[in-house]
Amino acid sequence: MAGGGGGGGGAAPAAKASEPVPHPPKDQLPNVSYCITSPPPWPEAILLGFQHYLVMLGTIVIIPTALVPQMGGGNEEKAQVIQTSLFVAGLNTLLQSIFGTRLPAVIGGSYTFVAPTISIILSGQWNDEDPVSKFKKIMRATQGALIVASTLQIVLGFSGLWRNVTRFLSPLSAVPLVSLVGFGLYEFGFPGVAKCVEIGLPELVLLVIFSQYLAHLIRPGKNIFDRFAVLFTVIIVWIYAHLLTVGGAYNGKPPKTQASCRTDRAGLISGAQWISIPYPFQWGPPSFNAGEAFAMMMASFVALVESTGAFIAVARYASATPLPPSILSRGVGWQYIIY
Fold first, then answer.
1. Model pTM?
2. Which residues cross the membrane (predicted)?
C-alpha cells in the first residue's frame, strides 16, 4: 500500500510579481516595406543609403552655395564647407544610431541657422580686404556662436531638462512641426528650380511619375520604382542636362543661366581636394560674441523643437515603440555633440 495520507503539506509558493511588459512595437504602416524589426537586405540597404546621401547632398549643398559667396569664399572654400558638412552629418548620424535615439534618422544641416549666420555676415565687423581672410573670420565667428548654442542644447539634453518639455508633445503636435520643416525648404528649393526650368521641372515631373504612378503600372507589388524614385530621376535628369550642355544648348546664354543649368559650371569638383579629412577648428580658433551667440541660441531652440518632432515621426514610420521622454532628451543631447 502506498502510504498516502498525510494531508497538510506546506503552503504553495507565492506567485511571482508580474514583471513590467515593454511597449509592443507599433503596427507596420501600409506601403512601408521595412522597419526596425525588418531591415532590408544588404544590397538594397546600400542602394537606399546612397539614395539618402543624394537627398542629403541637395540640402547640404544649398546652404554653402548661398552663404559661402557672401562670406567671401570661392569654389575651393565652398567645396571644403560641403565636405565638412557631409562628414559631420555622417558622423552625427552614426552616433545618433548607436548612442542617441537609435532610430533610423539621418542627421543633416538645418535651415534654421541660416538667418543668424547671415546676420553675422552682414554685421560688418569681420570685413577684410582679402576675401579668403574675411571668409575665415566669419567662419570662426560662426563656429563660436554654434559652440555656445550647442553647449546649451547638450546641457538641456543630457541633464534631462528637455524631457520635461517632451512630455507635453504628442503626435498631434509633432505633425505641424514636421510639416513646417518641410515647408521651410520650399523657399530655398523652388527659386533654384525657376533658375533652370527646363531641368528642374522635368525632375519634379519624373519624381512624381516614378514615385506615384509607375510602380502601379509596371510589375505592381515590387515597389522598385517608388522605392528608388530619387535615384532613377536624378540619374535620368543629370544625363539629360549633360546632353544639353555638350550639345551647346547654353552657348551664348547669360552667365547666371549657364551657372544654373550647365553640368560643368559648378566648380565644386575642380575646387575640391581628392582626400580631405575635416578636423576641429580647421579655419582657426573660434571667436565669441555675445550678440551672435544669443541669436544662434534662439535658432537652436527652434531646431531643437524641429528635431524632437522629427524623432517622433521617424519612430512611428519605423514602427518603433513610443519614444519615452528620456530617450528624446538623450537623442537631442547626442545630436549637438559634434554639431
1. 0.82
2. 50-69, 105-123, 144-162, 168-188, 200-218, 230-251, 293-315
